[in-house]
What we know:
The structure holds 2 protein chains of 2 kinds. Chain A is built from 15 helices and no strands. Chain A is mostly helical. In chain A, α3 runs antiparallel to α4 (120-143), α7 packs antiparallel against α8 and α7 runs antiparallel to α9 (261-277). The termini of chain A are close together. The model of chain A has no long low-confidence stretch (mean pLDDT 96). Chain B is an all-alpha fold. Chain B folds into 2 domains: 1-38; 44-137, Cytochrome Bc1 Complex, Chain D, domain 2, CATH 1.10.760. Helix content of chain B is 54%, strand content 3%. Chain B is built from 6 helices and 2 strands; from the N terminus they run ααββαααα. Chain B has a two-stranded antiparallel sheet with strand order 1-2. In chain B, α2 packs across α5 and α4 packs across α5 (112-126). At the A-B interface, α1, α2, α6, α7 and α8 of A face α1, α2, β1 and β2 of B. The structure holds protoporphyrin IX containing FE (HEM) (2 copies) and fe (ii) ion. The site of one protoporphyrin IX containing FE has 25 residues of chain A, from α6, α10 and α12.
Amino acid sequence: xxxxxxxxxYWFFALSMLLLTLQIIYGFIMAxxxxxxxxxxxxxxxxxxxxxxxxLLVVWLLSGFMGAAYYxxxxxxxxxxxxxxxxxxxxxxLAVVGVIAIIGYHFNYWEGRKFLEIPRPLDYLVVVNVLTxxxxxxxxxxxxxxxxxxxxxxxxxxxxAALLYLPGMIWFDNQTMDSFFRWWVVHxxxxxxxxxxxxxxxxxxxxxxxxxxxxxxxxxxxxxxGLTFISGVLGTGxxxxxxxxxxxxxxxxxxxxxxxxxxxxxxxxxxIAMYRKGEKKHPNKIALSxxxxxxxxxxxxxxxxxxxxxxxxxxxxxxxxxxTAMHGHxxxxxxxxxxxxxxxxxxLPNMTGRKLYDSNTGVxxxxxxxxxxxxxxxxxxxxxxxxxxLERKMGLDFGDVQKEIQVHFLILIICATMFTTxxxxxxxxxIRYGLPTDEALESSN
Amino acid sequence: MLSKSQARLFFFGGTIVTFVIxxxxxxxxxxxEVPKKTHEENxxxxxxxxxxIWEENNCMGCHSIMGEGAYYAPELTKVVERRGEGYMKAVxxxxxxxxxxxxxxxxxxxxxxxxxxxxxxxxxxxNTDLNGFPPKPDYKSTxxxx
Lengths: 445, 146
Ligand code: HEM
Ligand code: HEM
Ligand SMILES: [Fe+2]
């Protein structure tokens, strides 16, 4: 750590870990409901649990991205954050908006649009919050000595993500239009601008961990984010197959979305190549595991499992089944969950001054959470494929099919328990590091 | 070998070109095709009231519509065709949780008027042209007669 204000990141990471814990609890509520145990139906019906689960996911990832930016930007720009106080105000308001939204979901206070359930009045608070955040980041960059490609790509990702939130706030009478613009947020986030954020953080980590020349890393960063947008923007068409939109999207969406895995493949090859090339052997092996892990698992979860159902001929049958949930879990985990855990693993020793990174607990946390999540993906996948054949191909009733595939949710719960154990250990390590301190300044990066 | 400035050009150039095409196609879709395919002329006050009820209660948190939503309860795009108005109104107006196969729906106990609004919304949705979704089961005639 080279600047005192970088410590701000710690608190965003702490919030992130808290929300991840809550997210998992609501995941279990849904998994048990699928298994037939819906004892909480009266207080937390499935739709409440789902809105909480997915919104907490988005907020803990955003909190992680913001923490990453508060750590990376001062270091890259070689300048303290312009205001740490405003940073704390932003942190607390983010937590408050999140808590109000989640409580609201238990009292039917929401907007029933998948992933964008936050009600309109709270949306405005989100906008103010994000503007404060961006203001701090941009002002620091502006005052800083350097504007590196890494910090530029990261900031571009954050600014576009904020802009793309806006189309999700418009009301439409027509369900098709509603859905059309919902995808400008959901798809263009995860298969577009969030990849810039991921790429920026990944480049930063690779520069620090492998010691490979910045120019080389940043050149490939441009190629990867170029591939992302060239495939991902028109790739939005893979959500416009069957929602009342014209047929040309079947061709355009099919072709361009089938190219999207290239960006993730690029990310994986890039991380591995830089790791091989690097001479510096950074002692923080756990951060290295998460960094290489995110590049590889995102390729599997987003790239390969996305490709599996992205062609219109396949998507006709899998659209809106548990196959989508299979892909959603491994993609979000690999690309965005793991990059947040990677930057946390790298920065914690630097912010707290405690080098606890050769512990077995950290290694165990990595493997348990990843193997657990892979198992969950398989469970969702088997249930989903069976659902597709029984319901969509054979024409059995939805409810009868759900009874047939119920057993897979038992497997899901077992794997989820393993995953949760891994996350529990990660958080245990997080707490063991203790609080950030100025004494950690200038210690090795 | 590719230089960094060429890589940057690839990024900005590629982004701008695909983005312009995307905006053009979106504009064409929304202004010309979607109104026809969704029969926008049938989008009555009642249908819109139905959509508001659909959103206020986050029905999409259990069900899906046009294949979008959750995977806990049935896909509803063709529900009017599949179940008919009477069945739907019984579910919507029920004061105890509807649970045909043990899986409970929230007991909304809607008024008859609200139930009618929702039926109107589903009737409208059922008539949109979704390029063939939901697919017709291949084996329906041999296995399931209903
Ligand atoms: C990190 C990147 C990605 C994440 C986090 C992600 C996540 C998700 C999620 C959560 C959904 C469900 C959305 C909803 O129904 O509202 C979804 C749908 C989908 N994703 Fe991805 N995805 C990623 C990348 C990809 C890629 C690269 C492809 C294609 C190659 C892809 C193909 C699809 C398709 C076809 C659907 C629609 C499924 C359906 O029709 O039900 N995804 N994705
Ligand atoms: C203990 C862990 C977890 C369990 C038991 C669990 C379970 C579930 C269940 C049952 C659903 C609802 C599927 C439906 O609509 O029927 C769901 C949705 C979802 N979960 Fe999880 N989850 C867990 C952890 C996670 C994690 C760590 C992530 C992300 C990194 C995640 C991301 C998602 C997403 C994106 C959806 C929406 C999927 C879609 O709409 O296609 N979950 N989860
Ligand atoms: Fe997508």
